[in-house]
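explain this:
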Amino acid sequence: MDTFEKETSFTRQDLQLLYEVSTSIHAIKDFDEMLRVVLHKIKEVFRIDGASLALHEPDQKLFYFLRTIEMQQAGQHEDIEKMHFPDHLGVAGWVLQHNQPVLIPDTSKDERVFREFNSDQELPTRSMICVPLPTPKAIIGVLYAINKLEGSFTAKDSRLLEILSVTLAMAIENARNYGTLEQYATSLEEQNRRLMSEVQERFKVHGLIASSDAMRKLFGLMDKVIDVNTTILIQGETGTGKELIAKVIHYNGPLKEKPFVAENCGALSENLLESELFGHVKGAFTGAVTDKKGLFEMADGGTVLLDEIGEMPLSMQVKLLRVLQEGQFRPVGASHYVKVKVRIIACTNRDLETEMAKGNFREDLFYRVNVFPLTIPPLRERKEDIPLLAAHFLKEFANKFKRPLPRLTPTALELITAYDWPGNVRELQNEMERALTLAAENAEISEQHLSAKIFETEDQPYQGGSREGTLQEVVERIEKQMVSEALEKAAGNRSHAATLLGITRQGLLNKIKRYEIDK
């Protein structure tokens, strides 16, 4: 191990502290409260005088401080104009230009420090670390750690802060798009953020928790279709939350005061499905002792969700097509038609174009329901959302079962992030409920509380020899084997191997050291 790796090698305590800060970012819904907790946690973890966060405004070519520990402790509400500074000045300007962190042990000897700004502060800056807040599109700001209380800042401090900044940047970017970011900028910014706050309120529904680019694009499409009554086709694998998306669209749109009814098209026989959707008249069939309204009539003016529409029989597809084309249907056994005005949202886990080619789905119906398609990506394609969802579900079940909120250990977090979750969000939700149940009153959920399936996949079944021993011993054997195989596959390239394993490069280095792997 080279000198840099030794200096930046993280202990289990470091990883736990990093996990706690990251959990705070994702667990606290109120953006302002989240920043307060995170900056205080940074101050505590790094043992510093204070922490500050400045966002970059590229159009105006300036930075502005969103929050500092010192301002909050003093209860100050300073004129925000005084907290603006040009984006080419100071350490922040250097970090923005070079897109890399900077560690300054003595600010009096570093020419990059903006002297005028530093002299105005009530808390003079003696030493600092400044790291960029990166998103896939741009650097949105910088994060400062100010004045080490004991000793000097180290390379490990800088690396920890740099890792933390990635998660914090994504949280801020999400808040900009959907959040309740407090009003610190110009009146135009205030108007934009009020609109984004409205978007966040629309998506405040259980399960819609994500930071991945794929889900953010989906949220953007949802925002465009929420306020119009366009027919929607939601596609996605089982467990991805198709019905949840449909409910978000309905209950946050103009029809929110109207009925929302749902029917699984694959759960009933053709005759029962027709009766459920269109109703029947008395005497239409044996057992029809009274008239019955169908779901379409009950939902008049609202939304009908046709779940698993790909499993609807062809004869029923013809009758559904009449509703979509003419806005009317005939109840079973009736001689009259009923007119309705409903919004159709269809869901399927099948590829309807493939079903059309097989003759299982009508082409004319496909083009009627596929007006505005939404595709929910499977969880395996957005692994960055797994820690957020896991933390959410643990909090939910802890409240439900009246238990202390446990933490996922770093190893457990790595395992659930690496797993492909064929059952998607629903499977992850069930796994977190099971893990919390097994953990009982424990403050942590470790690998021993996870299901056996988490430790092996169909593509790479466990080949690590004997399964005898404690669960911890078996897990360690699996981990060692997987790390060795990944390094071999990556030809010794540690960054590539870490990507294959779905963990950070530092996480891989820690495992190489722990298991004494010579690669």
